[in-house]
Amino acid sequence: MNEVKTPKKPMMFYYGIFLAVIILFNAIVMPLLNNMRVKEVDYGTFIRMTTELNVDEVEIQDNQIVFSDKNGNFYKTGLMDDPALTQRLYTAGAKFSTEIVQEMSPILSILLSWILPMALMVGLGQLVMKKFTDKAGGGNSMMFNMGKSNAKIYVKSSSGIKFSDVAGEDEAKENLTEVVDYLHNPDKYKAIGASMPKGILLVGPPGTGKTMLAKAVAGEANVPFFSISGSEFVEMFVGMGASKVRDLFKQAKEKAPCIVFIDEIDAIGKKRDNHIGGNDEREQTLNQLLTEMDGFEGNTGVIILAATNRPESLDPALTRPGRFDRRVPVELPDLKGREEILKVHARKICVGPNVDFSVIARMASGASGAELANIVNEAALRAVRRGSKAAMQADFEESIEVVIAGYQKKNSLLTDKEKMIVAYHEIGHALVAAMQTNSAPVQKITIVPRTSGALGYTMQVDEGNHYLMSKEEIENKIATYTGGRAAEQLAVGSVSTGAANDIEQATRLARAMITRYGMSDEFGMVALETVTNQYLGGDASLACSAETQTEIDRQVVALIKKQYDKAMTILTENKQKLDKLAQYLYEKETITGEEFMNILNS
Ligand code: ADP
Ligand code: ZN
Fold it and tell me: What is the pTM of this model?
């Protein structure tokens, strides 16, 4: 292990400040101190004291006369046109002096003008340095922070986050339990010659609890927790990031066993490319990180956890064995996970008696842990707004919509005609979904405009978890998306802009069917697209010839057209139901899935 050197502080800076303080002190404070001892009197008093032979020493300065009496008190007075003054003073026996006010004891003078400011400076410096080393950064002052890592140390405490605070994510927890066990009991591992992975990569979409898991590992193992974000390494000056990495590891090794958590590691760990004038700073930082990871032995007790939602963009050098060789997926929670997360967060608020978290979890499909935490908080806020003491089921249900679709727009600007069109549109979705056997029933339909811009929406409920979707199910889903537009066409005879989002979703699904799921007859099981950003929206890039692209586009169009026609047929066959339901929704603005089914089946 090679010793690491702390980067040099800018010493010139301290000397500069030191000199400035001493000069200021001598220029301002000393005269002030002197002045405090000198009493100002009028000229008459001066003359009187002279005649009374009470003047001991006198100095006639440029603009004033300073003198002392026989008791050692100092006085000063203004200068007068007084030619006889010198003679008078002489006869009064006054001593003429040139440095009357400087007559402070020399020791005191040195003490005050040199030692005191020095002591002050040192004290101040100590205080500042202490603050910076205690918190290991946190401030933004470039001067003090040069090359210091901003890792925040969360000192081990019993109030730390534990695994029980992280709901769901059982696989991830199981994976990390081993690390905790190792930190508790390293000898067990050493005895057999096993070493812990140095780095563990937590991979998953934003808000799924990666940071929480890392903290929980530290909390469970009762070890210090260092956390730093990858973006904090990337500094304005080349070389700073690298020295921060050095510093971070130095701190960590001193505190071992401990957990180092690097959030957003992709900010420094991106694949190095050969761009001319590429990002030197980032590459240096990454190289330093790689060196540091190689530099310490597997069993020093420093375990590095890193989080990213772009695993594919990481440099292969970072993920090779010996570095971040273990990968723990932290996925979006499933139904059960969502329910547990809701319950964990609901412990912090007052919840009414009849709240059914499984229903709420079902409604919030696709929500991340962070969103669920937000939903619970919104429900509590809504309860306060209502003047209620506890959050009720309705509060939770409304807050899901708030988190997903934004707040209700209070003064809706929809005209009656628009409102009618929106009602038809939403019922169109719901009706098509309900009439296709495989589609999930609707939970709630609303045409109250939202701040997100949605004029209304249909909340579908998936019963349980879906890991697989059959071709028919996807087709039905596409048909459901087109149902809104089809209903508008059927009822009003024209179409509106309201279907923009539906069109996007339907196209995305249809495209994926052909290019990724191998569900087209012509292409079969050929991957025509690769997903580049699995956890952030799932962007895909085409990997085929131009001719094939043309063919894909043609097939997508045909596929959606077919589903649109199917939706149209369903709605035409049920035109009466459509009218009745749309009218009902128009009047009530929000209807539940139950009301919907009742009217449908009546
Ligand atoms: P990430 O680091 O994956 O982006 P965080 O760990 O910062 O996500 O999570 C953000 C917030 O979301 C947490 O503070 C917590 O309130 C909530 N959260 C996320 N996942 C969970 C979970 N599995 N259990 C409980 N709360 C969670
Ligand atoms: Zn729609």
Answer: 0.62
